[in-house]
## 1
Amino acid sequence: MKDNPNDRYAIPVIVILSIIVPIAVASLFLLPEDWKLQFGNANFRSLPFFHAVLNGCTAILLAVAFGMIKTKNVALHRLANILAFSLSAVFLISYIVSHISNPDAHFGGEGWIRYLYFFILITHITLSVPVLPLAMLSIYRGWNNQISAHKKLVKWTFPIWMYVAITGVLVYIFMAPYYPI
C-alpha cells in the first residue's frame, strides 16, 4: 500500500482522538450528581430520544452507503458515509451534554429482559470504542483513494458501526420508561 503524504498528520490525529474520546466519555460516568451543569432554563431531558433518532439515521445512512458501493455509485457512497459520521459526531457532542446536565437514569426491568438489556448495553458500549478509529481510518483511506486498505478496514468497520448504531436505538427503547420527565 502506498502511503498518503497526509498520513503523518492524519494518523496521529486519529490515534489521539481514539484515545481521548473514549476516556472523556467514560469519565462522564464518574461525574457526581451534584457536579451536573445547569444551562439556565434549558431542558435537555429529550436528548436520549434525539440520540436514538441520530443512531437510527446513522444506521440507515450506513445501509445506503453499503447499497451505493454495491451499485458502484462512489459519490453517493461517500456522501452517505460522511453524513453517517457527521451524525455520529453530533451524537457524541449531544451525549456529552446530556450526561453532564441530566440526572442518571437506571434500568428498572426485571427477569430475562434485564439480562437482554445488559447484554445489548455492554456489547454496545464495548463495540462503540473501536468504531471511532475504524470509522475515521476507513473514511480517511477511502477519501484518499487507498481503496485496498479501505476495503480491508470496512470489512470490520461496517458491521461493528451498524451494530453500535442499531443497538443505540435498542438501548433507548429499553430505557425510555426510566428516563426522568
## 2
Amino acid sequence: MQLEIITPEENIYSGEVEMINLPGSDGFFGLLNGHAPLVSTLKAGDIKITENGSEKTFTVKGGVVEVNNNKVIVLAE
C-alpha cells in the first residue's frame, strides 16, 4: 500500500509499505494491504512501518490518518 507521512514543515515519508502500526487515540492499531476505509486521530507516539522486510520508525506528536483504496495519508504534528 502507498503511504505518505506529512508534517506542516515537510513530507517526511512517501513510498510503498507492507505494514503500518499507528498510535491511535484509543490505542495502537495496524494496517495491512486491503484495509477498509478509515479515518482516525493519532496521539503522540511512534509510527512503525515495514517496507521490504525492514522496519522504520517515525515519532509524531499527534495527528490524523486516512485510509482509502490502499493509500494511507498521515497528517502529523
## 3
Amino acid sequence: MENIAIDKQNKLAINLIVGVSIVIVAVVAFLFYGPKITRIEGLNVSILPHINAVLNSATFCCLLLGYWQIKQKNIRVHRMLMMTAFVLSSIFLVSYVVYHNNAEHTSFGGVGVLRYAYFFILITHILLAIVVVPFVLLALFFALTNQIERHKRIVKWAYPIWAYVASSGVVVYWMISPYYQP
C-alpha cells in the first residue's frame, strides 16, 4: 500500500515538474521573442549580462564542487552546493529575462570560423537550457524525497547537461561582450 502512495506522489510531482518546465520555457520565449509589453521604460539593465556571467560561473563552480563532494561521500556539503547551484540558476533565469525583455538585441560581430563557433555554442546552449529544466527539477525532487536511486539515474543526464549550459553561457557571454552597447 505504501508503494502505491509513493507512486501517486511521484506521478503528481512529475506532472507538476513537466507543467512548470513548459510554463518556464513558454514564459521565457514570450518575454524574449514576444512584444515588449512588460518592458520597463528607463530601466538600466546594462550591468545584467555581467551579473549573469558571474551567476553562470558560480553555478558551474558549485556543480563541479558538488560533484567532487559527492565523490568524497560528503552528502551534506554536496546538498548545500547543489541547492546553491539551483538558487543561482534560478536568479540567473530571472535576471536573463529582465535583461532581454528590457534591452535592445545585441548582434554578434565576429566573422568566419569564430562566427560559426559562436552560433554552434549559442544554439546548443539554448536547446540544452530548455531540456535541462525538467531534469534538474526531477533530480531535486528525488533528492529531497530521499529517492536516491532515482536521483542518481536522473543526475546521470542532468549533471552534464546543466554543467554544459552553465559553462557555455559564460563562453557565449565572453564571445558577445565586445558587441554590447554602452
## 4
Amino acid sequence: MKIIEYEEKYLEDVRNLLVELEEYILSIDEDNLDQLHSEYREKMALIDLKEINKNEGKCYLALDNNQVVGLIMGMVRKYDEYDYLDYKCPRAGEITELIVSKKARTSGIGTSLMEKMEEYFKNIKCEYIFVDVFEYNKNAIKFYQNKKYHSRMEIMLKKVG
C-alpha cells in the first residue's frame, strides 16, 4: 500500500469512494435527511477538489496494487469576517473527507491517510485539525477518538411538526 497525492487519472475512483461513503451514510442516517442526488456522483468530487485547491488543501489517495482503496481530503479552515469577535481563529486544518473502501477497512489505511494529512497540516503551520463526523457513524467517531480527537461542539436536532 502506498499514499500518493491526487492525480486526475484517479477521478473516477474518487467518485466511486465518495458514492460508497454517501451510500453508507444513507444506511445509518436515523433522521433520513441525507440523500444521494442524481448529480452527486458527477459533481461532488469536482466540488471537493476545487475547494481544497482554493484553500491550501490536499487530497491523498491510498493505492493497493495500483487500485485506489482510500482517500483523505483536507484544507486550511477559513473564517468569516466576524469570527474573530468571539474566537481566536487559529490557523487550522480541516479534514473534509476520509474514506476507506469497505473491502480494505481495518488494515491501517485510514491511519496512514490520517498521518499523511496531519503531517501536511503541521508542515504548513496549522495549530489544530478539525473534522466533522456524522453522529450516527459510531465507527468513525471511535476511529478519531483513538487518534486523540475530541468533541468540541455538538449540533442538536429536533424534528418539529
